[in-house]
Design goal:
By secondary structure, the protein is mainly alpha-helical. Helix content is 76%, strand content 0%. The model has no long low-confidence stretch (mean pLDDT 86).
């Protein structure tokens, strides 16, 4: 338990430091070059398509697992 607490504390400290660095960078350079909504839509569609394909493959393999054992 002590080891888990130490790891959690270390992770929180690193995350806090990274957030502080990010906020400092934001104040130094406010133009972050935000991505457009079109890019977000394309990424969401790509990830959704990949998940659907992977899910379909998993279902087919699970359904025909016994038939595929000789391959």
């Amino acid at each position: 338990m002590k080891n888990t607490a130490t790891r959690s504390y270390r992770a929180v400290r690193q995350l806090t430091a990274r957030l502080k660095e990010g906020f400092a960078e934001l104040q130094r350079n406010p133009d972050r070059g935000d991505i457009s909504i079109t890019t977000v839509i394309i990424w969401v569609a790509a990830v959704t398509g990949a998940l659907l394909i992977a899910g379909t493959i998993a279902v087919v393999v699970a359904k025909y697992n016994g038939n595929l054992s000789g391959i």
